[in-house]
Amino acid sequence: MDYPKLKKDTTSTTLFGRKFTNPYKFTKGNYKEAKDWLLAEKELTRMYLRQCRFKDRIKENIRHYAGVNNARLTKEGDYYFRFGLDPDNYGSLALFSRKKLDEDDKKLLSFASLPKEKNERVDVDDFILSNDSRYLALTCSKNSKEAEDIYVFSIEDDSLTRDHIRGFAYSDMIDQSNGLAWRKDGFYYVRRGNVKNLAPIDLKTYDFQNPDKADQAQYLYYHKLGTDQLDDQAIFVRKSNPQAYLNVFVSSDERFLVIIEWNSITDKTNVFVDDFEDQVDGLKLALKGIDGYIRFIESLDNRLLILTDAENDNLWLGYLDPNRPNELAKALNVDETGSLLKNAYVAGENIITIYTAEDKQIMLVFDLSGNLQYRVMVEDGMSFTRFMGSKGDPELFVFIESKVQGRVCGVFDLNQNKFVAKFGAKNDRFNEDDYLYEYHTFISSDSVEIPVMTIRHKKRFNPDGDNPMLLNVYGGYGLTMEPYFDASVVYLLECGGVYAQAFIRGGGELGPSWHKQGSGLNKQNTVNDLIEAAEYLIENKYTTANKLAITGQSHGGFVVASAMAKRPDLFRVVIPRAGIYDLLDLQFHGSEFGAPIDSTAFFNKIDLSAYHNLGKAMYPSVLFITSLNDQRVSPTQAFKMTARLQEESISDNPVLLYAFGSGHYQAYSWSTWLQLRTSMLSFMFNEMGIKPRF
Length: 694
Known about the structure:
This protein is α+β, with helices and mostly antiparallel strands.
C-alpha cells in the first residue's frame, strides 16, 4: 500500500546511557506538513473502509439490533428523567421529566435550544439536579470535546438561566463523580486554570501547540446562581502540582463539603472536609497521604461514609470522623469471604453494596448500623451497572444489563425487599437465550489464575475453532470493564463470531490487589496476560490466530498495541483506540506506569512502549482510532505510531488511521457510535475474509 510520506526527524536523545530516536514528531515546527499528512491519511482510510465488502449490510444490521428499548428513565430528587428524541427537532435529543412513574412525560428541554455558535454542535453529557429539585446543571461538550461548559436550567421557570460556566474540567479521577456538586443557591465545580482566563485550556490539542506556560493546575470554585463566572470564589488549588486532580462532593444534608485530591504521580490521596456546622470555618485535612483509592459516599451520624482500599488489598467501607484525622472505622458487620466489594451507595435507610464472586454479582442491603438485611441476586451474564437513590427515599432505581441484552431498569422498594416495577430491553429482534456466556480461567506463565469471559451463539459456533473473535481488554487504573449493551457484539454473534473479555491484571475486576499486580513495575504482567489469554482461546478452539481481532480503548489501546509489537504473529486484526504508544511522552501517571526519573521504571516502560519496539516484521492489519479533540490522550500518539508502523511493516496488511472529531470516549452521539462500530466490524470482517450471514 502506498502510504503518505512524512519527513523524519533524525535527532536523538540519550537517556540513562541509551540513545533514543523519535523519527515522527508532531510539533509547532512541522505543523503545516503534519496537517497535510493527516489529511492524506484520513482520505486513505476513508477510501479503504469504503471499499470494504458488506459495510452497508453491517451498518443496517447493527442499527437493527440497536433498536432495543433500552431503559433511559432515572430518578433524581422529585423527578423522573429520561433522554429521548425531540419530536419537534428532527435528529435532536431532548430531556423529558415526570413526577410519577405512571404519568406521561413532559418535554423539559430541547438540546437544540442550547446556546451555540454557527456550525457548532452542543451535546449534553450529564445533568445534576440541585438538592431542592429546582435547577439542573447541564454539563455540555461542544463539537464533541469533553465537557467544558455548564448551563443551568430552571425547572420552575422552564428556561435557561443566565449562568454559563466555561472551562469546566470533567473529573479526571478514576471512578468518581463528575466534578460538580450543588449546595444552597449555587454549586462547586472543578476547572483547570484560573477563572480569570476564561479560554478553556487544552493540555493536548490537535494544533500541536505547546501548553507548558499555561496555568495547568486544577481549581475548585463556587458559583452562586445569577452571578458572573469572573466573580466565582476560589475554594482550593494546588499550583505546585498540576497533576493533582480534584473532585468535590457535598453531603445530601449540605452539612459537609468533601474535597478529594489525588496525586497521579505518587498515587497518594488527601481528603479535606469543611463542616458547615462547625464553629471554626474552613477546610480541615481529614486524611493525609493515603496510599490508594478514596470515594465519599454519604454523611451518617456526623461521620463520613468512605469507600477505600487503604491498608487493605480490597475495597471496604469505613467511617471518617472529620474531628479525628487519619482514623477510619469499619462500617459493615459482615464477612463475605471469597467475594469482593465493588461499590456502595446510601438509599432510604440503608447502605447498598455490590459484591462479586467470580462471574456472579450480588447486592447486599444493610441497615445504617452496618447489619446485613438481605441479598439480591442478578441473572447469569448480567451485571448491576448503575444505581440511583437518595437517603430517606426507599425507592431505588437499579440498572441491569449485559453485552447482548439492553438495559433493564428495576424500581426496587427497600422496605418491601422486592422489585415493584421493571421496564426496558424488551425486543423481538434477537433472542438472548441463543447466546452462551462462559467464564474461564487459565494459569499464567507466572502461576496466576487469569479470568476470561466469552459469549457465543449456541448454534452457530464452530467447535473446530474457525470462528472470528473480538477480544477486548482494558487492564489499567483499577477499573472494571462493565458489560454495557453493544449491538455490534450481537451482530458478531449472529454471524457465528465470538466476543471475549480478558480480565487482565491492572484492572479492578478482582479488587485493588489485582490492580497492583499490573501497575508500576508490574505493568508487564498486563501485556503478558493478554498474549497468554489469546493463546488460551486459540488452544481451546474458540478461534485461530488468523481469525483473532483484539481491541482496547485508552489504557486498553496501549495494551493491545504493546502486545502486537511483541507478538505480531498472534493476531489477524488489531484495533487500538485512543491509546498511549510512546511511553516516553508519558510524563505523568507514574503510579500506573512507573516514575520517569527512576532508571528501573524507565527501562520497564521502554520494554512496554509499542512505538519503541517496532522493527521490520510481518504485522497484522491495524486500524488506529483516535479523536482529534481528545484532551486526555493526545491524538499525536496515534499519528506517530501509524507513521512508524507503516514504515516498519513488511506485510501486505493495511495500517490505517481513523481520526475524527470527538473526545476521549469517542462516541458522544448515536450517529458517531454507529459509524465507529460499523467501521470496526467492517474492517475486521474484510481482513478476515468473512461474509456475513445476512
